[in-house]
Amino acid sequence: TRVSLPEDLLEDPEIFFDVVSLSTWQEVLSDSQREYLQQFLPRFPEDSFEQQNQLILALFSGENFRFGNPLHIAQKLFRDGHFNPEVVKYR
């Protein structure tokens, strides 16, 4: 799927993290949208729902996940142009 997004959203960390935030998760997304996105999170043998909620809080709070925070890594990759259609085409 190809999606056009404003460059500033992807390149400016301040704007990116204002949009991709816990408040957006809690206040903007509907319950069905959150449920859909949660299916991409790891499943846990016990208290999966609670564990997923803790994972979401850690993700949006910038916590380190072994090699960095996935949101911070994604923003850096966006900023550096790794998802530009021309770059993807030549990879």
UniProtKB/TrEMBL annotation:
CDD domains: DEUBAD_NFRKB. It comes from the Eukaryota. Its main location: nucleus. Residues 6-91 form the DEUBAD domain. Keywords: Nucleus. It is found in: Nucleus. GO terms for molecular function: protease binding. PROSITE patterns: DEUBAD. This is Nuclear factor related to kappaB binding protein. It comes from Mustela putorius furo.
